[in-house]
Design goal:
- The protein has helices spanning about 1-5, 10-15, 25-35; strands spanning about 10, 45, 55-60, 65-70.
- By secondary structure, the protein is an alpha+beta fold.
- It has one domain (about 1-70): Methane Monooxygenase Hydroxylase, Chain G, domain 1, CATH 1.20.58.100.
- The strands form two sheets. The protein has a two-stranded parallel ribbon.
- A hairpin with a 2-residue loop joins strand 3 (about 55-60) and strand 4 (about 65-70).
- Helix 2 packs antiparallel against helix 3.
- It starts with a helix and ends with a strand.
- InterPro entries: Fum_R/Succ_DH_flav-like_C_sf (IPR037099), Fum_Rdtase/Succ_DH_flav-like_C (IPR015939).
- GO terms for molecular function: oxidoreductase activity.
Length: about 70
């Protein structure tokens, strides 16, 4: 998990985690794949810029899809 979804991550590593036997690892990967940006200490080498449109937005998994929601 640390090598594929640690502080430095990319699509290739996150996609490897989708088949992880631990459900939480796969959930982290699905949310991180949906969020195509770098934010805070999490740096996507394939998306190094911050996307200010996602400020205050959280990735939420319901069923098979990831959605973005603003939390109040």
């Amino acid at each position: 998990m640390w090598s594929d979804a640690g502080l430095v991550r990319n699509r290739e590593g996150l996609e490897r985690l989708l088949d992880d036997p631990y459900p939480l690892a796969a959930l982290v990967a699905r949310c991180a794949l949906a969020r195509e940006e770098s934010r805070g200490s999490h740096w996507r080498t394939d998306f190094p810029a911050l996307n200010s449109d996602l400020d205050g937005i959280h990735a939420v998994i319901r069923g098979e899809s990831a959605a973005f929601e603003r939390w109040q």
